[in-house]
Batch of 2 targets.
Target 1
Amino acid sequence: AQTVTQSQPEMSVQEAETVTLSCTYDTSENNYYLFWYKQPPSRQMILVIRQEAYKQQNATENRFSVNFQKAAKSFSLKISDSQLGDTAMYFCAFTGANSKLTFGKGITLSVRP
Amino acid sequence: DVKVTQSSRYLVKRTGEKVFLECVQDMDHENMFWYRQDPGLGLRLIYFSYDVKMKEKGDIPEGYSVSREKKERFSLILESASTNQTSMYLCASRSAGGFYEQYFGPGTRLTVT
């Protein structure tokens, strides 16, 4: 069974600074996808970024980028130039051959003005 | 844009009542999912459906059932609501092909008293 671990329950960052959210996972599969989802206080879950395991290049979406270390089974999210609107809960998620998403417990990120 | 809607944002029911949570998606997605979200536990899969009239149990199906009579609609049913089913319920949908990312509805906060 796959597991996703987010060991930090919450973090805080100053506006305009950079923050990294950690995620590790465990799987025996070779082909899979990893995601970071964001859930703002309004509760609508939205996709931030995805990474295909077969791609060596780290995914980037504007201020969001990942550090994907396949051998270490690590998938961290870096948020550059943090904005107040980045305040949210962030979930790391994994999907493999069974097509089901397995989520970590989430991390609450607060951006301070 | 993909739109997933849920019938209620907030719902209060009494113990023993039969509860229906409705989810509708407008992107012709084959796959639909029901999760419950609890603090410190992340998202846990209750049931999912690969296609019309098809359903499969997730990780925590006890006390729940589902119905998918039309492709765009996926219902979660609590046959006899109990207080331990007080939670946030999230619906999601996904195309059978593509990058496996799921699109979420706004959630229903269910309180069982």
Target 2
Amino acid sequence: GQQLNQSPQSMFIQEGEDVSMNCTSSSIFNTWLWYKQDPGEGPVLLIALYKAGELTSNGRLTAQFGITRKDSFLNISASIPSDVGIYFCAGPLDSNYQLIWGAGTKLIIKP
Amino acid sequence: KAGVTQTPRYLIKTRGQQVTLSCSPISGHRSVSWYQQTPGQGLQFLFEYFSETQRNKGNFPGRFSGRQFSNSRSEMNVSTLELGDSALYLCASSVGQGADEQYFGPGTRLTVT
């Protein structure tokens, strides 16, 4: 079945660093969604992508819909402590009644 | 517009009991999806409801059930609780199809002792 492979699994970052993460699939997607989850809370939608090649920004966050439609990328520029959390990618299953989710990328600030 | 609300936020139950969790979607949203999230794990899909009909179900035992009311509010029920059911239960609403942009509630933290 469809799966989303998200990498890296975790990242240690220093404040001010740029961060990149990606999500890949063996199947074509028509939509890519990026979420962030803080501990003990529900995920929050960051960016939604609907067109191959689309590049969309939300403040310091930029996400891209890969041209092959099998991948997506999320970049965070000049990271700050509140960027810590888990970032998930998601896309619609064939039935369109369900999203499938990557396993998440955990961002941790280096002490 | 108010966000997705879930009640209760925290719950402690003992093995063998049953529990009902409630979710109120964003006004105008007709689809509600439920997820289970255990520590360090991703989101495991439970089921999705639209117009009071379950359209899709994840790979969970029959002890997990749900329903949706005419006002789009949804409940999920877990019977005969097991220790492994301890998790954060999240509900998400979307305008139409469950695979649209989903907006999540804060979750219900269930602890089974």
